[in-house]
Write a structure and sequence with these properties.
heterodimer; A: mainly alpha; Sodium/glucose cotransporter; two-stranded antiparallel ribbon; 4 strands; about 70% helix; about 0% strand; globular; B: mainly alpha; disordered C terminus
Chain lengths: ~550, ~110
Amino acid sequence: MSNVNTVVFTIVLVLFLVVTVVGFLAARWRRPPVMAHLNEWGLAGRGFGTFITWFLLGGDLYTAYTFIAVPALVFGSGSIGFFAVSYTIMAYPIAFIFLPRLWSICRVHNWVTPGDFIRGRYGSRGLALAMAFTGILALMPYIALQLVGIQSVLTVMGVNASSTNTYVKDLPLFVAFLVLAIFTYVSGLRAPAAIAFIKDTLIYVFVIVAVFYIPTRLGGWGHIFGASQAHFAAINPATKAPNGTFIPTTKSTGSTQFDFAALALGSAMALFVYPHIITGALASKGRGIIKRNMSLLPVYGVLLGLIALFGYMAVADPVTAANVKKAGNTQLAVPYLFQHMFPSWFTGIAFGGIIIGALVPAAIMAIAAANLFTRNIFKEFFKPDASPALETRMSQWASLVVKFGALVFAVELPHTFSINLQLLGGVWILQIFPMLVVGLYTRWFHRWALLTGWLAGMIYGTLAAYNVKNATTSHWAGSSDIVFGHSIYIGITAIIINTVIAVILTFVLRAARVPEGTDETLPHQYTADPKEAPAPVPAGVGAGLEG
Amino acid sequence: MNTPSATPSTPRGPQDPAITQAKNPVAAHPITSAAIFVLVAASICCTLIVPIYAHITPKIGDWPFFYFYLLAYMPLVAIALWLATLLQRRLATPADGNAVSGSDAEVAR
């Protein structure tokens, strides 16, 4: 720890301590008489208004991975990284269509997880299990990536000890994560909701300052765009191909317009299906709050667009570009850029913001995965008579297990691998889109047809992603493959296969008169807006359980 | 949308006349509904159809068109969805939807 900048380190440490205190104090915020209910621990009492929901969802949607990985992709490949901007634009209108319905039906039935809805809608434990499995599977590497984000900041700060043992080297990361795990255990969803205020304030301050200040240091936007355009057009001597693309091309493979649209659409459809985003949405107290937030959250998206441009700033700044090249890790682009551009005290604020920005979504993701496990696996298959207190205790422990699983992911796997696991996470989570989102509108699909389609999509998506290779990596090298001569996001191909199989099998199973299961929902419940708070105890799912 | 069940073992819940006979808000307010549809669909399509904006020129100041478009489009989506929320509130009330002029012009920019 010889080359640590004391000012940066002190500011980051102070910010972290503030967040820790807030995380523990959050247990007292809107304190319920009894905390040991999943509606309290897991959904913070389901009483958040527009303002808190905006901060919570904003803190949930934009993760440290966004602040690190999107600019890293832009730095490495150019325009294709901007699919992230396009996808955030599309995500809100798509969620505007279906999210209020999901909120209403879960509110009326007092359901906690998307798996609860699927169980109630299709009367199928198997389908709910598929949902829970997919959700947990997709969230684990996503949490791991929050850690990779923290790691990249810590690396540039120089606090990673120069030991060769990875566990000694990542000690600061472990400490940060342990603190996060404990306050999530104690305060539940209240902790990330409270910390989101600090996170968002810090992020807004450093992004706005950076966007106005850095171009003045680099000779203006004209120079930043000009240097990037020249850089990506230049031929890389190693690969004999251009370094990247400055505008998506009209060719059939590579960084094409078609793949740009496919990546954006697939990611946009996946975003609000992720269990942690649904958890954030279900914590709000009104249907109107969800809708209002869909028009308020794009403000945050403007920020994402500006953050993506940090990638070009890093290209245009020779010192940063050289530092990143020396380290051989494009994910250090933003931390190096800030370190080189800003005085130490401001770098400290920015780094603190990125680290806290990773902790908030990591906490919500762990809670969402824990709730899925408790509600749709533990209670459903192992202990149908679990009391609310036992459910909550189970979720608390599950959140710890999920976090430490993610920690192993982050430390053990090479980073290029875990980044592609996140893209794979998107491929996986998309496979529940038909049963969850289409299920909000129609019961036409047969439950076993949906399950088979899901399985086919999962298998195809996983295998296709495994087989993607490039010059340096033999597997998991990307998230797009070539179908009929065109590059396309694997998630899109997989969901098409999934849906086609589900449609065909629905006809077959209906013709064979296979039982369709009981639907617990009623049409008007999908547009209901109950004003009174739901009972603290989440409802059981399935007629058999309730007697 | 729910097709009647083929088997007697799958009850769809009580057919409450209050629910089934409630006036369909889309049928009651066709113009408002169409305006909402246009706002939401345009928000999605104008970024999904990449050839619209995958150009370097015309430059806006120092900004290539592609980058300017993506950033400028975001606030427009916010406005479009906000208008859609307001219009949806109108669907819930018995007033007829004749005050939608300008809303779809907003998103078509």
